[in-house]
Amino acid sequence: MSKADQIGRTIRILRKEKAMTQLELADGICNRTYISQCEKGLITPAPEILQKIAERLGTTIENLVIESATIDFTKIEIENAIRHVINKLDENNFTHATKWVNKIEHADLSTKQKSIYYWAKGKIAHNQQQFEDAEKYYLTSLDFGNTEYDNSNDPTPLVRTLTSLGIHYCQSGKAIQSIPHLNEALELSNRHEISSSERITMLFSIGQMHACLQEYHSAIEWLRKAEILSLQTGCIINTANILVVSGVCYRRLNNLDTALDYYKKALEMLKIAPSTSIESATHLNIAVLLRLQGKNNQALEAISLAMMIHEKAQDTAYWYNNCKVEKAHILKNTNKLSQAKELCEQVIASHYSKQTVAEAQMIMADTLLMMGDIQEAMKHIHNAYEYFRNSRRQDFIQQSLEVMNKIYAKKAGIEVDYSHGTITQ
Predict the structure, then answer these.
(1) Which among 245, 250, 209 is positioned nearest to 227, based on CA atoms?
(2) Fewer beta carbons within 10 angstroms: which end of the chain, N or C?
């Protein structure tokens, strides 16, 4: 039985099981004649049509292709799909990128295409904060990328994966592990000609690495290189993101005015190259800055705007939980303790990101202390501290120790006024 016969037979069986006519199956996808020819094995459906047929029949492409591990894609179709995958991920359009990745899941890919395919799978998993899956995909992509480089001396897939793997380690609390990968990416890019967009992403990633290692001055230098190159070449898709991270670095250095300037520049850039996730992240960071300045009402407005953008865009739960954590922090500062506690509970229950959960536990501990529940506060702050200590996040270690000291002081009957440095018994 040919592959076309196999697919056609399965479509016919599933259609009849659902008591569906050929016309009903074809509605909005193709015409009835096309379905008839498919079922007779006269043609093999195009990948995008096969995907829609599978969805309407309540199944997957895998189940339609019973005995074959691959679908008949032409080389041109595969190349077009790969190009779409790269473009959509460069645009941070993960929804459409996922659709294109799914289309070529069973295609007969070359070594280079396999490297790109698994890199894309890693990026998608990474965006969903599925760090273990992301690492697995990136490492698989790295194997194919190394093979391709050995065979053709083409460094692009390898640099792309090394860069993404480096950022993966930064954002999953393993920044030190990112160093050899990003150094190799830099060495390859200096040795070979790579596209401006790839080099910008690599420079940006090195900047993020230094930021995660709390080397903020070095981070700013690398981020500035990425910003300049993006403006010189017109590759501005990620410029707003570069500006936001630069702002975070300046905030960490307590240069709040410069940080705010960078956030404003990011919002201006987003008018040219829109991105809902980066726009929301910008307002989130503005909220943090305003909170640090004691402008809690303005901070609440900024974080509410960030959350509204996330809701409208149906963005990932990870980023939405980050907003919840910041809003809880602001509510705690304004003595809206029950609301702050409720938001922290939602984040902790989500188990979506260990870093975000630990931050929520730290704020929960401080909130519970203010509510007089010392025992529960102690449990949460110890959990948060253990995570920050294991991930070597010195900034959060310091913050969690401050909360822990307040809890112990309260337990011992000591009142500590941290703003004036006085202690009363």
Answers:
(1) 245
(2) C
Nearest of 86, 242, 262, 111 to residue 101 by alpha carbon: 86
pLDDT value at 357 more than 80 = yes
Task: Classify residue 160: in a domain, yes or no.
Answer: no
The CATH number of the domain holding residue 57 is: 1.10.260.40
Domain range for 53 is 3-64
Q: What DSSP state is assigned to residue 44? A: P
Tell me how many helices (H) and strands (E) the chain has: 22, 2
Q: For residue 298, is it within any domain?
A: no
Q: What average pLDDT does range 209-228 have in this prediction?
A: 95
Structural domain includes residue 249 = no
In a domain, 416, yes or no: yes
- Please, what is the angle between helix 47-56 and helix 32-39, to 10°? 90
Write out pLDDT tens, residues 40-55.
888 888 888 888 998 8
Integer Cα distance of 425 and 412 in angstroms:
9
What is the DSSP track for 293-353? TT-HHHHHHHHHHHHHHHHHHT--HHHHHHHHHHHHHHHHHTT-HHHHHHHHHHHHHH---
Side-chain half-sphere of 405: how many Cα atoms within 13 Å?
Answer: 10
Yes or no: say if 181 and 165 are a contact pair by the CB < 8 Å rule: yes
Domain limit, last residue, from 64, 90, 110: 64
Q: Which residues pair with 422 in a beta bridge?
A: 417
State the pLDDT confidence band at 318, using cuts at 50, 70 and 90.
low
End of a domain among 28, 45, 64? 64
* Nearest partner of 251 among 395, 402, 418, 397, judged by Cα: 395
Task: Report the C-alpha gap between 144 and 118 in whole angstroms.
Answer: 9
In the chain, the number of structural domains is 2
DSSP assignment string, 105-139: TTS---HHHHHHHHHHHHHHHHHTT-HHHHHHHHH
Does the pTM of the predicted model rise above 0.70? Answer: yes
Q: Could you tell me which residues come within 8 angstroms of residue 306 by beta carbon, excluding any fewer than 6 positions away?
A: 280, 281, 282, 283, 284, 287, 323, 326
**pLDDT score at 103:** 78
With beta carbons less than 8 A apart as the criterion, state whether 216 and 210 touch: yes
So what's the pLDDT on residue 265?
Answer: 97
Distance, CA of 177 to CA of 238 (rounded, Å): 24
Ranking 204-208, 234-238, 404-408 by mean pLDDT, the lowest is 234-238
Could you tell me how many residues make up the chain?
425
- Both tokens of 148, joined, read 């391709």
d(Cα 152, Cα 150) in Å, to the nearest integer?
Answer: 6
